[in-house]
Design goal:
Layout lengths: L4 E2 L21 E9 L7 E2 L5 E2 L4 E9 L3 E2 L9 H15 L7 E5 L5 H6 L5 E6 L5 H11 L7 E6 L9 H8 L3 E5 L5 H15 L5 E8 L3 E3 L4 E3 L1 H13 L6 E8 L15 E10 L3
Parallel strand pairs: 7-8, 7-10, 8-9, 10-11
Antiparallel strand pairs: 1-6, 2-5, 3-4, 11-15, 12-13, 14-15
Helix pairs in contact: 5-6
């Protein structure tokens, strides 16, 4: 049976695609608009003593990407969860919570949310599996968005299914403060490998904080006689199992409300969820 080809739903929601010529044949270039408020603004009044409200700056992130791929290469597309995570990162950035931090993105795909992190963080480590030219695509998209990037920015390979890290990656992960991931589960094997990777990262020199955005994808099953989100259920089951198996840290796991502002242009559907996981060293 041939492998299925999939297309991200977001491409049909708004007119993101541009007429810019992509570097790689078969790709397209899209521009994703967002509002970028200025942080730490003080209240000011105009000459008539009316409140002078500073309007957010309109920005775009330019991304070269595939418009459809095989399932194994979905990272070459842009998915809805990246926008929700982008909103959350801007929200944190405006509050100063990314200042002087090192942010690690897992399964970064096109690099979109790493570029948002790089507006605020001190260092951003953008990682994905070295497959299908994903790392080269991130580096290309970094060049498109240099004006936004204010941090030290590194692109590195990280395969969820290989937790035997080399010395360079191990040393980098030790200094990470915040880990982010969006739309990284679409298969039970990948989900299990993702959780194993997260467990190792979060237990490496805690404290660390992980923010992960997922979109529940429902299918109807005869077994349950209802629509369920099997990959999401696997994620919750594995997460519940590993959070109690840590020798070097204690974990706090919580689902966050989605009541923060929307800066990107997309539909924030009810299937989107945001989880926060924090690890703290065990006090002996």
């Amino acid at each position: 049976m041939p492998e299925l080809t999939v297309t991200s739903e977001i491409y049909l929601e708004y007119e993101y695609q541009t007429k810019h010529k992509p570097i790689k044949d078969g790709n397209v270039i899209s521009e994703f608009p967002f509002l970028l408020p200025k942080g730490n603004s003080t209240v000011q009044y105009d000459e008539d003593n009316d409140l002078d409200i500073e309007r957010p700056q309109k920005e775009t992130i330019r991304i070269e990407h595939s418009s459809k791929t095989k399932i194994a290469l979905v990272g070459l597309q842009v998915w809805r969860g990246a926008f929700l995570l982008g909103d959350w990162l801007i929200h944190l950035g405006l509050k100063g919570e990314l200042r002087d931090t090192t942010v690690l993105e897992l399964g970064a795909g096109t690099g979109l949310t790493s570029f948002v992190s790089a507006i605020y963080a001190k260092t951003v480590i953008c990682t994905d599996i070295d497959l299908g030219g994903i790392l080269d695509l991130i580096k290309l998209n970094k060049r498109y968005n240099e004006r936004l990037i204010k941090s030290q920015f590194k692109v590195m390979p990280l395969d969820f299914k290989n937790t035997s890290w080399d010395t360079n990656l191990t040393n980098v992960i030790k200094d990470v403060d915040i880990v982010i991931a969006a739309d990284v589960i679409y298969d039970d094997d990948v989900t299990a490998a993702f959780i194993s990777t997260v467990q190792k990262i979060m237990n490496t020199r805690p404290p660390k904080t992980l923010y992960v955005v997922l979109e529940k994808r429902y299918v109807f099953t005869i077994e349950h006689m209802e629509s369920i989100a099997p990959c999401y259920e696997t994620f919750l089951s594995l997460l519940d199992k590993v959070k109690t198996e840590n020798v070097h840290s204690t974990w706090k796991v919580e689902q966050l409300p989605l009541d923060f502002p929307k800066y990107f242009t997309y539909e924030r559907v009810k299937e989107l969820v945001l989880w926060k996981i924090t690890s703290n060293p065990v006090i002996c």
